[in-house]
Structure formats: C-alpha cells, structure tokens
Amino acid sequence: MVVPKPEVNLPWVEKYRPKKLDELISHDDIIKTINRFMDQNQLPHLLFYGPPGTGKTSTILACAKQIYQPSQFKSMVLELNASDDRGINIVRTQILNFASTKTIFKSGYKLIILDEADAMTNDAQNALRRIIEKFTDNVRFCMICNYLSKIIPALQSRCTRFRFGPLDAKQIMPRLDHVIQEEKVEATDDGKAALIELAGGDMRKVLNVLQSAASAFPVVNEDAVYSCCGHPLKNDIFEVLKWLLNDPFSSAYQKIQELKIRKGLALQDILTDVHKFLHKIDLPHKTITELLIKISDIEYRLAGGTSEKLQVSALVSAFVLARHKLEVN
C-alpha cells in the first residue's frame, strides 16, 4: 500500500501545480494541439520556450502523467534540470543509455525532459542531435528553455516549437482566488492587483509572493505585497515625484536619500517606478523625452556599478533642469 505524501509543508507552487492538462489555466491552443498529438499517438519531439513561470514544465509533466501510469513513471520518464550536470559526458552516457534501452513488457515510447536546455553547452547540444534522430522510435524529447536563441538551429529543426507567453490578469485571477480560498488567506482586491502587477505574467512569482505575504502579514494587501518584495510603495513614489517636481535641488536630494535609507530601497527600483508614473504626468512631450533619456543614462551607469549617491544627484538635477527650461519658456 502506497502512503500519499503529506502536502502540508509543500510550497504552494508545488502544492497547486496542475496534475492534468485540463487544469492548466492558459495557452489553450497549445494544450489542444498536444492533446491531439497524444490522442493520435503521434507525439513529436517538443521544444517549449518563453519567460519563467508561464507553465512550460507544468505542461510537459501533466502530459507525462496523462500518458503513463504512476507505476510506469520512473521507468519511462527521465527529467534532467539545469542543476544536474548535462555536459557532453552525460549526453553520451545517461541520456544515451536511457534512450537506447527498451523496457520489457511495456509498449510505447519513453520521454526525456530537458528543463532549462539553454544552459546546455554547444558540445552537449551537438551530441544530442544524433541521439534524437537515432532513437525516435523509442523515445521522445521535450526541451524547455527561456531563450530560444541559445538552442542550436539543428535541435530547433528537429522539434515542434511552442512559445509560452506571459499570463494575463484574467488567466491568473481564477487560480489565485482558488489558492487564497484553499489556504484561507485574507486578501484584499488591491493586494491581488499588486501581486499580478509585480509578477508580470509569472504565475510562480504570484504564488511565492502570496505565500510570503500571507506568512508575514495577517492581511495580504497592497502594502504587504510591496513590503515582501522590497519594492517601493506607490505612496513613496508619489512623494519622490512630488519632491522632484517641486523642491529645490538640495532639499529633494536630501529627502530621497533619507527615504532610501529608511525604507532600504534601491535606486534602480525607484527609477523603474518613476518611469511608469512619468508617462501619466501632464508635461510637454519634449520635456518627457529629455527626462526619459536622462533616466535611461542613469540606469545604464547604475548597471556599470557607479555610486548611487552620484546617480541620485543626476536624477534630481535632470528634473531641476527640466523645470528651469519650462519656466524660461
């Protein structure tokens, strides 16, 4: 008798991972196509690519659970992740041995899942080409990656490619509500909106931040979500913009520095949010264009490792100059 594993201590990302293709919340066209392949017993080699948290791994694991019985799963599915060594030696030994051997008394094909395949070396990818061709009658490959350009063209041409785009709010919200209900979390509408906005279409990030916020705060609201991510609150960004647009140089610089230290904020995050709000301010197009160019230069310099104090000065001076030009005109 197999005792089911307790799911009490599982992260919510794993606890609520879809078990069947029907449970997936997005990419209906891709799921219909794969279902058709499986119904006709003509599953090709697959290549899933797209941003993280969009359901690539969940889709192929749901397929595998649909194709194989639980007792067959270990003998018929080989899953290798980026954490495993997947150099040329592993391709020539472990993958080759698994692909070349047939299981007694079991019909059908095996499945090899190469998660984060864009981390494989070019030598390993080249060694994989011949294995895919030679053992097609016995095994199917599914490669999963974030960046299609890092997969060599020879492998791309041997697979049927599917792009998994970021999920939109309409797709995320029902699953988010389901998890909130199951876990008895008290969440507000602005908290849910903040989760979806910060995740940027990444379902994994939505659930991870929700779990963190639910553990740290009694109510998951907007402030709780932003605090868990270490992200500037909207009120803080409004204050920063107010200082930039109204205060003299020394006062604005001092206030932004104090806010950064008090809240532990990075200038990079402040810049990202100031950029979003800047589009909503009623300023002449020429002024906004100049400010955006200067903000992009500051971001570039930050990426190069320059002092944040210098770049805060550059940010304040950009707005002071813009205000001065407006006053002259």
Automatic annotation (TrEMBL):
Single GO term (MF): ATP binding
A Pfam family it matches: AAA
Keyword Phosphoprotein belongs to the record: no
Cross-referenced SMART domains: AAA (SM00382)
Residue span, AAA+ ATPase domain: 42-186
Keywords of the record: ATP-binding, DNA replication, Nucleotide-binding, Nucleus
InterPro entries: AAA+_ATPase, ATPase_AAA_core, DNA_pol3_clamp-load_cplx_C, DNA_Rep/Repair_Clamp_Loader, P-loop_NTPase, Rep_factorC_C, RFC_lid
Taxonomy, superkingdom: Eukaryota
Subcellular location: Nucleus
Protein's UniProt keywords contain Transport: no
Coiled-coil residue spans: none
UniProt GO cellular component terms: DNA replication factor C complex; nucleus
One GO biological process term: DNA repair
Similarity section: Belongs to the activator 1 small subunits family.
The protein's name in its UniProt record: Activator 1 subunit 5
Organism name: Bemisia tabaci
